[in-house]
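Reviewers of the previous submission asked for a worked example of the structure-prediction workflow described in the proposal, so we include one complete record here. The input consisted solely of the amino acid sequence. No template or homolog information was supplied to the procedure at any stage.
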Amino acid sequence: MNIFVGNLSFSTEEEALRQLFEPHGEVTSVSVIKDRDTGRSRGFAFVEMPNSEEGRSAISAVNGVDLDGRSLKADEARDRGDRGGGGRPSRDRW
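From that input alone, the workflow returned the following structure tokens.
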């Protein structure tokens, strides 16, 4: 299960997120998403847990928890194809 974690402090490290999620089950990866140009955190991350039941439990436990002065938002990550379009509309739509 891939879990989206938002509202992160720019100083939150991957290890801190791993420690927050591990009491709820196995964590296979943690990725804090960083800006390509600056290398600074973009304020969100993805946590991968192989067991969906443990993942749902972790989401319930972690959502709203304070980490580094920020109230975390945790939810099941959506597939990239499910995202709404961003940026400018194409000219074809006008």
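DSSP finds two helices and six strands in the chain. We consider this example representative of the routine output the project will generate in years two and three.
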